[in-house]
Amino acid sequence: MDHKPGLLSRKWVRVLLYAVSALLLACGVFLLVREHVLLPDPDFVMPETPVPTPSPTPYVRPVPVRISFVEAKQSCEVFPGGVLENGQMEVIDRADAATWLENVSGSLRPAPGEEGNAIIAGHKSKDGVAGTFKVLWDAKAGDAVVIDYEDGTQGWFYIDSIDRYPYQEVPASVMSANAESPQLTLITCIGEWDSSGGTSSERLVAVCKPGLPA
């Protein structure tokens, strides 16, 4: 059966109109969805997870409060001190205590474990009582010395050298704050009593280096 040309043309026009309408409807729906729904970004790159950086811990000066001589099984309290008017180191007036040279003329000196030379001194005896630091008379290289700090931590040191000097000829380096690496210098009296100077004739000096607990 033959189709009339006019009817065929109108049919395809309707099809085209339907297709255009459907396309416009789809575009409208897409625009509506895009306005209210966040579509995935094809160019999105996942950022790397940052590694948390710990906040710096404020430095706390290690304040020595006790010293222990491991091999001798002796210990005593440590108190801060300075220098007397005559230029000599101040040492607490007790046989069972020691003094850490904390400052000289307002200038802070190293604490045990800090960079430089930390100095702690104690009596060999006081008022007829043997002092704790008399243990240094029998000490030897390698002996352990433990410092307890105010914050509850500890520092371990080991005797590196022991020397004796006439009390008026102690090298300046012994009392200096400077050292190539952290060290602890322990000082006590030894030798005969020198009545002219009112003190023992010599000083025993033990230089200790920091180390790990044995």
Q: Give the H and E element order.
A: HEEEEEEEEEEHEE
Task: From the alpha carbons, calculate the radius of gyration and give it in angstroms.
Answer: 42 Å
Could you say which overall geometry the principal axes of the C-alpha atoms support? Answer: rod-shaped
- Name the beta content range: 35-45%
Protein structure class: alpha+beta
N-C termini distance: 113 Å
Q: Count every beta strand, where a strand is a DSSP E run of 2 or more residues.
A: 12
Low-confidence stretches: none
Global mean pLDDT:
87
**Main β-sheet: number of strands, strand sense, barrel status?**
8 strands, mixed, barrel
Percent of residues in helices comes to 10-25%
Number of helices: 2
Counting copies of identical and different chains, the oligomeric state is single chain
For the biggest β-sheet, the strand order reads: 1-2-3-6-11-12-10-9
Would you give an account of this structure?
It contains 2 helices and 12 strands, in the order αββββββββββαββ. It has helices at residues 5-36, 172-175, and strands spanning 64-69, 74-81, 97-101, 103-104, 107-108, 117-122, 125-126, 129-130, 144-149, 154-166, 183-194, 199-211. A hairpin with a 2-residue loop joins strand 4 (103-104) and strand 5 (107-108).
